[in-house]
Design a protein that fits this description.
Layout: H1 4-9, E1 14-15, H2 19-36, H3 43-52, E2 61-62, E3 66-68, E4 74-76, E5 81-82, E6 86-89, E7 94-96, E8 101-102, E9 107-109, E10 111-112, H4 117-122, E11 125-128, E12 131-133, E13 138-139, E14 144-145, E15 150-151, E16 156-157, E17 162-163, E18 171-175, E19 178-183, H5 186-193
Parallel strand pairs: 2-5, 3-6, 4-7, 5-8, 6-9, 7-12, 8-13, 9-14, 12-15, 13-16, 14-17, 16-18
Antiparallel strand pairs: 1-11, 10-11, 18-19
Helix pairs in contact: 2-3
Length: 195
């Protein structure tokens, strides 16, 4: 029989108040508190960042405040920058590639709930779907990425966009819901590889 954590990470309905999940969240809250109250690039900030996001490259730079559910379910590649007030709800795996840039107030939201009222309200069941952000992507201010979405490598997502469907490599997308505006030119896509 699967634990609630195993159900959560496999995208099945689970109960978030499970003691193991609550303990993981409390560990995350303590690391998040230390991270958000420390000075960027200080030893305290670096230690708190490692405790909060153990699957992140050492050179990831995140401006506090930063918020997440668990931290341990998020993988972050090399040379990633996140500006102020980013949020990652990582009840399902979140994978962020190399050289990704996120402006302020970006939200990666893997968590969702069943439409069935009894399951959602009475049973307090929820579930999550993974999010992937490809290498060299740039997410503008206030972008919201919904559960189950993948954003391809080199993509640019315009400020304020709500990304409800996956976006293939080398695209510029914007709006609510986000729609593909155009494909990057060969020169634009080549520039992003040189960073």
């Amino acid at each position: 029989m699967k634990t609630e954590k195993q159900k959560m990470l496999s995208g099945e309905l689970y109960i978030a108040s499970d003691p193991e999940l609550v303990a993981d969240k409390m560990r995350c809250r303590e690391a998040m508190r230390r991270f958000n109250q420390s000075i960027p690039d200080s030893d305290e900030w670096k230690t708190a960042k490692r405790d909060l996001l153990p699957n992140a490259a050492d050179n990831v730079y995140i401006e506090p405040p930063f918020f997440c559910d668990y931290g341990i379910h998020t993988e972050i590649g090399e040379d990633v920058f996140m500006n102020f007030n980013c949020t990652i709800l990582d009840v399902a795996p979140v994978r962020i590639g190399n050289r990704v840039m996120m402006a302020n107030n970006v939200q990666l939201l893997t968590a969702t709930h069943p439409l069935d009222v009894e399951r959602r309200v009475v049973n307090l069941e929820e579930y999550g779907l993974p999010i992937t952000i490809g290498d060299n992507a740039w997410l503008g201010g206030g972008v919201i990425v919904l559960p189950g979405v993948s954003i391809g490598k080199n993509c640019v997502i315009g400020a304020g966009s709500v990304v409800t469907k996956s976006v293939p490599d080398n695209m510029v997308a914007a709006g609510n819901p986000a729609r593909i505006i155009r494909e990057l030119t060969e020169e634009e896509a080549a520039e992003s590889h040189s960073r």
